[in-house]
Design a protein that fits this description.
Layout: E1 13-19, H1 30-41, E2 52-56, E3 61-66, H2 69-76, E4 80-83, E5 86-94, E6 100-106, H3 114-121, E7 129-134, E8 140-146, E9 153-156, E10 159-165, H4 234-258, H5 289-301
Antiparallel strand pairs: 1-3, 1-5, 2-3, 4-5, 6-8, 6-10, 7-8, 9-10
């Protein structure tokens, strides 16, 4: 059973650190990694007493949580980490804060700098937009909105752009072929694995029948058109959960009604017997025309009418 780690302080600033050059977080003690980050940020243990350093071995990254904007700025400036006598390249950036939602826009000019992208998006035309940055070397940009609503359209330098919800991906390493981390933070760059069939150290002329480990279809794991590699965002999951719960409640009520779930139904022993009316009272005794004729004849001759019961 996997034990869930406690949540980091909600009001803290979160910094994501991605070490490179084969740095493996699983082979270093967490305390040594924390000391290396402090030294790179030129901070002492006393100054970072309120900070938390959490190692994510699966993604091979480090998450730093701090309440200080000044220390967060220093952490984001880290570009190298030293472990013993070896130095590793690293990158760091601030994660999106709590109660925010991400979107994607396309068509960002290649020549626009990070400062220009931020200035063209974070302005009065997009009041809920908090931050924006380019996705690698592509023409796409990730935009962060306050709250749980992603607008259908936003404005970039005064021009209207379509905005869609950002979907996180199941990370696939194109270096070692394994799931869980990206190629730029691969802890085992010398280890090779075929993304098609999963065999270790494939030959250069290796041929196989690919089978995706995410969806089971006949394409390599992490194929860009594989729908299973994208995770459904929470803002999409939540209304689906609520709708499913409402449908289950409605179906439950319908089954209850179909099974005669009336709490005020009359017990079998209390039902009126015989030919009673709707109020449970006996109906008037019906007399046939022959009995009426016989009764009239007896009245004329002064004799008693025969008993109808026999």
């Amino acid at each position: 059973m996997t034990i869930k780690k406690p949540n980091l302080p909600a009001d803290d600033i979160k910094i994501i650190m991605r070490p490179r050059d084969g740095f493996c977080t699983a082979t270093h003690r967490a305390t040594r990694i924390g000391d290396s980050i402090r030294n790179a940020a030129r901070l002492t243990q006393e100054e970072t007493r309120g900070d938390i350093f959490r190692v994510n071995g699966r993604q091979n990254i480090i998450v730093v949580s701090t309440p200080s904007e000044e220390r967060a700025r220093r952490y984001c400036e880290i570009c190298k980490l030293r472990m013993g006598d070896k130095e590793y390249e690293a990158s760091a950036y601030t994660a999106a804060p709590e109660n925010t939602t991400k979107g994607i826009i396309r068509g960002i000019p290649d020549e626009d700098s990070p400062d220009n992208i931020e200035r063209h998006l974070v302005n009065e035309h997009n009041p809920t937009l908090l931050h924006a940055k380019r996705m690698g070397k592509t023409a796409n940009a990730i935009v962060v909105f306050e709250g749980s609503v992603v607008p259908h359209y936003i404005y970039y330098n005064g021009t209207q752009h379509r905005c869609v919800i950002y979907k996180k991906q199941y990370e696939t390493c194109y270096t070692c072929g394994r799931l869980g981390h990206r190629s730029d933070v691969c802890p085992n760059p010398q280890s090779k694995r075929c993304r098609g069939c999963g065999c270790d150290d494939p030959a250069e002329d290796h041929q196989c029948e690919p089978r995706c480990r995410l969806c089971g279809k006949d394409h390599p794991t992490g194929y860009r058109k594989c729908h299973a590699k994208y995770r459904t965002p929470y803002i999409v999951k939540k209304p689906l959960w609520e709708r499913r719960r409402e449908e289950e409640e409605t179906a439950k009520d319908q089954r209850h009604n179909e099974e005669g779930g009336n709490d005020f139904s009359v017990l079998e022993g209390e039902r009126p017997t015989g030919n009673g009316d709707k109020d449970g009272l006996p109906k008037a005794f019906k007399v046939s025309w022959a009995q009426k004729a016989a009764s009239g004849a007896h009245a004329r001759f002064g004799t008693a009418a025969p008993n109808s019961e026999g």
